[in-house]
Protein 1
Amino acid sequence: MKNVFSTLFLFSLGILFSLSACAQDQQNRPSPAAKSTGKAGGANITIAYSSPAVKGRTIWGELVPYGKVWRAGANEATTFETDKDVKVEGKTLPAGKYAFFVIPNEKEWTVIFNKTASQWGAFKYDEKQDALRVAVKPEKSKEFNERLKYVVEKDGIELMWENLEVPVHVK
């Protein structure tokens, strides 16, 4: 009986240290985890993402190719969560948690809210799981953004990285 308790104790310690190491690993990633929260369209919005850096690279059209689905961050897919139904660019998005993808192009982007919120990157992205797709126009950024960041404001959300800002209206 004593051996069973000793084994369980050691096993529990091993799990505890493993979980701690995984949490530290996520904090020490080159693209650290980030979160943006706020109210838009009367709803509480949370965007969880990993924030890559420019590091002297050309982002749009090179690192992030035009015309292909991108996870809108690094590592795990970016998530968008709303506690109320909202209108995104005039179209209804029910309350819930979604993977947030984009298809960037030079003059217009497709913003995608996918029902499979928990996924790694866009490797298993399935268009059949899209809850909503909207078109938005990127704009030249007022300032250079070394790290990808999201901002939640009363009129919507904004993706900002390198020399671009991508506003998405939420009501």
Note: The longest strand covers residues 139-153.
Protein 2
Amino acid sequence: MRCKCKNGLMERSVKPEHVEDLGGLVVKVLNAVVVQRCSACGDEMIGIPDVQGLTRAAAMARAQIPERLTGKEVRFIRRALDMKQTDFAAAMDLSAEHVSRWENDHNGVGGASEKLVRHNVCALLSDGACEYDPKAIASMVFVPFPEGGIAPIEMVRVRTTHRTNEEDDTMWSEAA
């Protein structure tokens, strides 16, 4: 494929690591991001495969990390569920005002409500291929969100036999 500069060809490679802010949660994608670079002008295009799947897997992974959720992360999780604020509030048995305050870092949710939200998020996002341990969330002891933020969640794309669609036999998983 030719570059828009019309002087070079786009060379394709896979980056071993790529850090991406998904809009409230930072992930480090391992061995999956495709880079196309022009041989003449050096212009680059980056492609992340299955961004929606990555977003959902990252939201589920974040729900299982014991640091308190920030407002940006709650908004990210809600968007990963593809829910409006009112729908998310109803599904989590919270008022829309409470969710709004939480997302804007005005008023956090208590421990019991945060555990319920984490359980619900994992249950709604779990597709049989990505598993979670409800007991781990039930016994989770929350720690304050660190001053510099949490480290990017490392994600890797893996082949799976759980999918029924033969065209898409991959999924995102937290790197071990």
Note: The chain has one domain: 51-174.
Protein 3
Amino acid sequence: MNTLLRACAVGTVLAAGLSLTACSSSPSSAQQSFPYAGSALDVINDNANMPVTVTAGAAREVAVEVRTQTVGRSPQTPAWSLNGDTLILGTPCGASWVGYCEASFAVRVPDGTTVRVNGQEAVVG
């Protein structure tokens, strides 16, 4: 009986692995801009596995881009928002247990803007 159970478990794992390897990797991106006239921006990113890079530009706006790489699932458009001096980044990966999703954020701010990501001063490149 244990041999049968073990064989079923191995078969299930193999079938799941094969179904995911049959899926190709899908890169995608989404972006949005917000008018901004402040001098300091707080960025809230609830997912530590999704890095945030910050650059400066000449425009008086905050521009956000998320780049995702997925296997076996589709990315979602993040629910991000700018409320005063706080930019809240949502996740594009959802809560599904099937598949793989990886993402990174790029935030562009006006020249001279001080940026903190989750309370830590960010290097503006």
Note: Residues 25-121 form one domain.
Protein 4
Amino acid sequence: MAASPRLIHGFREIAPAYDLLFCDIWGVIHNGHAVFPGVTEALSAFRRGGGTVVLVSNAPRPNGAVAPQLDRLGLPREAYDAIVTSGDVTRSHIAAVADKKVFHLGPERDLPLYQGLDIHFAQADEADVVVCTGLFDDTTETPDNYGPMLRAFLARQVPMICANPDLVVDRGGIIIYCAGAIAEAYRAIGGEAAICGKPFQPIYDAAFETAAARRGSPVAHGRTLAIGDSVRTDLAGAAAIGCGALFISGGIHALEAGHGEGEIDAEALAAFLADKGVVPDAVMPRLIW
């Protein structure tokens, strides 16, 4: 029988052990429509105690485009110190292929990703590189809609740059597909896809550098806590860099992780985490102080 993970009732129970938070955004802070109750106070209280909060997101847009979205959803800027996104990391990959013809696969809202870069855009059948930020219409489409396009890219050996490793997110109770699902579908048929963001090292390097700049000195990995709702990105990333992990079990894994209409099923949660091979330092349904 799998060991029961440590269930906590409030972040205050473990906050003193850490100086730095790498906090996921979608699924932890908001659901695409509104900020979850209690999140603002939890992050603000940690900062009032001397901690630093860096929001680390697989958003396929630069950090400067994410902050206004958080403003609209109701997260005050006093709740965090900085934002680092997979879009920030992706821009360096795009800059390296600036001399090639690029096809943008994703919604227009992600076009800020290219701002300030000298990019030569092209249609899909003429492109040398495809940059995937998501589905064109994630409200109606699935990765299956892109089969013909991906096979055409494969026939010409067109490499893909994926700006968001997430497979899915929960948007107001509805699961929608992300760029990572397209990249995985392309890899599954033999395509080449460079995937930016969590759980890979470059985004964490950027986050640690950003935190050090804000604090005036580096923070040890052991005094850093990653907060997230995804086993594949947040928990795997925390394990890879050797920092603590707080699993928010009420996110995209809610049903698998033992969430019903009442209390958490501790046995189901333990079995789920054991099956995934991850051991977070603590678990709570939602981030509250």
Note: The longest strand covers residues 52-57.
